[in-house]
From TrEMBL:
Subunit structure: Acetyl-CoA carboxylase is a heterohexamer of biotin carboxyl carrier protein, biotin carboxylase and the two subunits of carboxyl transferase in a 2:2 complex.
Domain Biotin carboxylation: 1-444
Name the record gives this protein: Biotin carboxylase
PANTHER family linked: BIOTIN CARBOXYLASE, CHLOROPLASTIC (PTHR48095:SF2), PYRUVATE CARBOXYLASE SUBUNIT A (PTHR48095)
Pathway participation: Lipid metabolism; malonyl-CoA biosynthesis; malonyl-CoA from acetyl-CoA: step 1/1
Listed Pfam families: Biotin_carb_C, Biotin_carb_N, CPSase_L_D2
Substrates-to-products reaction catalysed: N(6)-biotinyl-L-lysyl-[protein] + hydrogencarbonate + ATP = N(6)-carboxybiotinyl-L-lysyl-[protein] + ADP + phosphate + H(+)
Purpose of the protein: This protein is a component of the acetyl coenzyme A carboxylase complex; first, biotin carboxylase catalyzes the carboxylation of the carrier protein and then the transcarboxylase transfers the carboxyl group to form malonyl-CoA.
Organism per entry: Gluconobacter frateurii NRIC 0228
Length: 449
């Protein structure tokens, strides 16, 4: 097992990894920008190294600075968390070339799954169901027209190297295909330096279902059930729950078996998440995230497993030590992402936190690096906390989350807590009757009123 790990991230996820390391008796090294000198993950680490100015490009994306910090502190491994360099295959390769362990998948699998077209081709060959669409990148507009006619409108044109909703455009009719094609390619080129796009059938009322998996270096792969991540705004998740209120036990078992068999054949190692669109009883693979997910706590709550601890064990060469039949899901969990944003306009709201009070009680977990007096910098993602609850049933989990939100105090900046209260009180949400389009429509109605 490692004796010291460098955490190449910031905020609540850096603190989350520190906690797992401390319980395992592993020392931690925090890296930070000058803007994060007073951050909680810096204060609580065994060692801290400043790696650059506030800009992510010059600090948390600065590979040379991160590797130098690992070298001078004697770290044996690097955990990338999520975001930043977590799905950068070149970074994973460079880490291992420097004699350090990368706590994540192999560079080969990061690269394979990072390209949406390659990922879909691979999954198709492994027997995982896909959304109908093009077999690969579209060479020209005419090809896009032909595929769209074959699968039927509406269609979605997506960047091959995309993420976060960038490089994605819907064409509802043949008259809109040229504009969607042009805009998607332009956005993809600007955001990712790659203008390759592909086409999928646009599903009008799907849910976003993802499956958490772990694989070790000895050929063992298991899953920890699904998360329903359908509540999204502009393709950014806001609330997640485990399990999904839409699935039957038979559907859970089938998609779990199909996914783990596919990843075992790939020889996949460490944590990963397969993401699907689900509609009318059918699962369609859309992408794979080769890293720890923001919403991993809901899975931890229903499965009583420390996924970060498991990541570290796997990276150290240990076997999982359990099989699929040993994993039991119990109760229901909900996570609300607390962003420092205006709850109506979603404009970022950086600034000083005057008062911070985390809710507590049975089945309540708050993952956050906030403290009273902390100044939220304007340079990074606006998520400042994750509030997670667990209860025996979904209705009890909703009630517990409502109570926890009422207890949560973040004074000095705006947050989306008022929006979460409205979502949880809505009859459609309480019945579990929502799709990936529901939140956009809900927000629009709230704005009107």
């Amino acid at each position: 097992m490692f004796s010291k790990i460098l955490i190449a991230n910031r905020g609540e996820i850096a603190l989350r990894i520190q906690r797992a390391c401390r319980e395992m008796g592993i020392k931690t090294v925090a890296v930070h920008s000058t803007a994060d000198a007073d951050a909680m993950h810096v204060r609580l680490a065994d060692e801290a190294v400043c790696i650059g100015p506030p800009s992510s490009r010059d600090s948390y994306l600065n590979v040379a600075a991160i590797l130098s910090a690992a070298t001078i502190t004697g770290a044996e491994a690097i955990h990338p968390g999520y975001g930043f360099l977590s799905e950068n295959a070149e970074f994973a390769e460079t880490v291992e070339e420097h004699g350090l362990a990368f706590i994540g998948p192999t560079a080969q699998h990061i690269r394979m799954m990072g390209d949406k077209i390659t990922a879909k081709t691979t999954m198709r060959e492994l027997g995982v169901p896909l959304v109908p669409g093009s077999d690969g990148a579209l060479p020209d507009l005419q090809s896009a027209r032909e595929v769209a006619e074959r699968v039927g409108y509406p269609v979605l044109i997506k960047a091959a190297a995309g993420g976060g909703g960038r490089g994605m455009k819907v064409a509802k009719t043949a008259d809109e295909i040229e504009e969607a094609w042009t805009v998607a390619r332009t956005e993809a080129r600007a955001a990712f330096g790659n203008d390759e796009v592909y086409l999928e059938k646009y599903l009008n009322r799907p849910r976003h279902i993802e499956l958490q998996i772990l694989g070790d270096a000895h050929g063992n792969v298991v899953h920890f059930g699904e998360r329903d991540c359908s509540l999204q705004r502009r393709h950014q998740k806001l609330l997640e729950e485990a399990g999904s209120p839409a699935l039957t036990d038979a559907e859970r078992e089938e998609i779990g078996r199909t996914s783990t068999e596919a990843l075992a054949r790939m020889g996949y190692r460490n944590a990963g998440t397969l993401e699907f669109l689900y509609q009318d009883g059918q699962f369609c693979f859309i992408e794979m995230n080769t890293r720890l997910q923001v919403e991993h706590p809901v899975t931890e709550m229903v499965c009583s497993v420390d996924l970060v601890r498991e990541q570290i064990r796997i990276a150290a060469g240990e076997k999982l030590g359990y099989t699929q039949k040993d994993i039991k899901m119990s109760g229901h969990a909900i996570e609300c992402r607390i962003n420092a944003e205006n709850p109506a306009t979603f404009a970022p709201s950086p600034g000083t936190v005057n008062v911070f009070h985390a809710p507590g009680g049975l089945g309540v977990r708050m993952d956050s690096a906030l403290y009273a007096g902390y100044r939220i910098p304007p340079y990074y993602d606006s998520m400042i906390a994750k509030l997670i609850v667990h209860a025996p049933t979904r209705q009890e989990a909703i009630a517990r989350m409502q109570r926890a939100l009422d207890e949560c105090v973040v004074d000095g900046v705006q947050t989306v807590i008022p929006l979460h209260r409205k979502i949880l009180a809505d009859p459609s949400f309480q019945k579990g009757d929502y799709t990936i389009h529901w939140l956009e429509n809900f927000v629009a109605e709230q704005t009107k009123s």
